[in-house]
Amino acid sequence: MSEQENIQLVQQCYDAFVHGDVDKLLSFMAQDIAWELPAVEGVPFTGKRRGRQAVAEFFGIMSQLQEAREFRPMEFTAQEDRVVVTGHYEWAIKATQECLRSDFCHIFHIANGEVVRFTEFSDTHKAAVAYQSCAGAIQQAVGVTAASAAPGLH
């Protein structure tokens, strides 16, 4: 695919996400996609995951714990098989209504018309602080223990 086609694919991913169409979003991903967010202690959807099912679980857990107030990808840059997106988001933590604001950088790797790898960079300190006060509510909401909430490759 061309660099412009790769950007269009990533834009379709964001469009599906913004419209809450996780099935469509997953359809743009390779079966064995590598998915990585910085690991944040106490935030069970962070860390590394592999495969569409694990990414679907990521979106399920994330939607249980927070809701978007703003999600704004702003700049798309493509080079060969990579698309880098910078933007800004604001999430309301459902247990506390605390607002988590951060700029982000997303890196998508594309192969054969599918996303094969996704990596996010954001302000992990802000995430840790936002989630710190509601650890018990998070465990109850997603049915996890402190040991299983530790991020890892799933």
Please explain how this structure is put together.
The structure is a single chain. The protein has one domain: Nuclear Transport Factor 2, Chain: A. It contains 5 helices and 6 strands; from the N terminus they run ααββαββββαα. The C terminus is likely disordered. Pfam families: SnoaL_2 (PF12680). This is Ketosteroid isomerase. GO terms for molecular function: isomerase activity. Keywords: Isomerase.
Short description:
The protein has 154 residues and is of the alpha+beta class. The chain is 34% helix and 40% strand. The chain has one domain (3-142): Nuclear Transport Factor 2, Chain: A (Roll), CATH 3.10.450.50.
Features:
154 residues; alpha+beta; Nuclear Transport Factor 2, Chain: A; six-stranded mixed beta sheet; 5 helices; Ketosteroid isomerase
Strand-helix topology:
Elements: H1 3-18, H2 22-27, E1 29-37, E2 47-50, H3 52-65, E3 66-79, E4 82-93, E5 99-111, E6 114-122, H4 124-132, H5 135-142
Parallel strand pairs: 1-6
Antiparallel strand pairs: 1-2, 3-4, 4-5, 5-6
Structural class based on helices, strands and sheet pairing: alpha+beta
Distance between the termini: 29 Å
Total domain units: 1
Helix run count: 5
Which series of helices and strands comes N to C? HHEEHEEEEHH
DSSP helix fraction: 25-40%
Mean pLDDT across every amino acid position: 88
Multimer state: single chain
Biggest beta-sheet profile? 6 strands, mixed
> What's the total number of strands?
6
List low-confidence stretches: 144-154
Biggest sheet: strand arrangement? 2-1-6-5-4-3
Which CATH-level-2 architecture?
Answer: Roll
At the first level of CATH, the class is: Alpha Beta
What is the CATH topology descriptor? Nuclear Transport Factor 2, Chain: A
Q: Indicate the overall shape.
A: globular
- Rg computed from alpha carbons, rounded to a whole number of angstroms: 15 Å
